[in-house]
Amino acid sequence: MTASFGFSRLPLIVFGNDKLGMLPSLIGKYGTSVCLVTGSSSFITTERASRFLDTLDGMNITYRIIKVAGEPSPAVVDDAVRVCAGIRPDVVVAIGGGSALDSGKAISAMLNMTESVKNFLEGVGTGEHPGTKVPFIAVPTTSGTGSEATKNAVISETGANGFKKSLRHDNFVPDIALVDPLLTLDTPPDVTAAAGMDAFTQLTEAYLSVKAMPYTDALAIEGLRAVSRSLAACFHNGRDEENRSDMSFAALTSGICLANAGLGAVHGFAGTMGGMFEIPHGVVCGTLMAKANEVNIRELRKKDTANPALAKYALLGELFLGEKGRSSDWYIDGFADHLHTLSLELGMQTLGKYGIREDDLRVICSQTDIKNNPVALSEDDLYEILFSRL
What we know:
49% of the residues lie in helices and 12% in strands. It has helices spanning 23-28, 47-58, 74-85, 98-110, 189-208, 214-236, 241-261, 265-276, 281-303, 308-321, 328-345, 358-366, 379-388; strands at residues 12-15, 33-39, 62-68, 91-96, 136-140, 152-157, 163-168, 176-179. The longest helix is centred in the middle third of the chain and has 23 residues, at 214-236.
């Protein structure tokens, strides 16, 4: 018998090369005024952007451009809402990496509100958002967060009292996710690595999650198959369209999976560290993924050899190592070794490069939530993971 489950709503997904050309007409279906949220330079300075804006001009569509540098804070969102409110946008469009998409998602949610977004963040504010929003279109230019398919926008403040929390509501799922892999061709290798490891981690953690279900398992495996073919290849040759298409698919799929199955220890760490230090989310994922899975495997073998997560680890090993006829333990250990090798190949930075010190590790561990991890980990286990990548 199939176990009961629920599945979150999805945006209308438009996927494929050159789909950016459809964006003006999609905007036009909502009205004649748009708030356009972008990164600081990755898209807005390109020839594609010039052609896109010329098309909007030709359609007599008014637009206001909001540039977001780095991960959005409440102040960034609040300021953008004040600026965009002046043109009364019919639709918000975010074109960029995960930070731009999260910013656009939050702006669309706050344009009809009078309070700061901070008041509606989980674990920070006391308000309950009613879910009203201006229609929102997400257009990713990196292959990482999968924010184009999720109902939450991650907002952060760094410092001693910092946080990295979500603005979340079922209605905040983008109305349209337009995924054009050609927009990722110029992504630098370091960003390609960090974003790709974010997607890889999301797919893996959702697949292994205690909340996984047949739907998310099926999607996760297809996303992971794309990662196995193309993540390292994109890092070494970012202009290969086939590999970029694979990673765009993987990132989109990772967003769908995490929204429905949740995530594990690595993303627990990322949420905590993102509020304390200026460290890119993808770097946390990329540098911790190998050790976190190594510890997961060790603890599963020690505590629960019948846990279905071990069988899933074996399937991951078979997928990524590409060999048939080996034992389950060979595949499990081989997958863990592969993660360590891949982290080195992609040049993932250690935590100390971002100001994290040994004295910080216990504090990070005490504040890290790993409720969907396939096995319970002690604070000492968590410390071991962090210390190994200090």
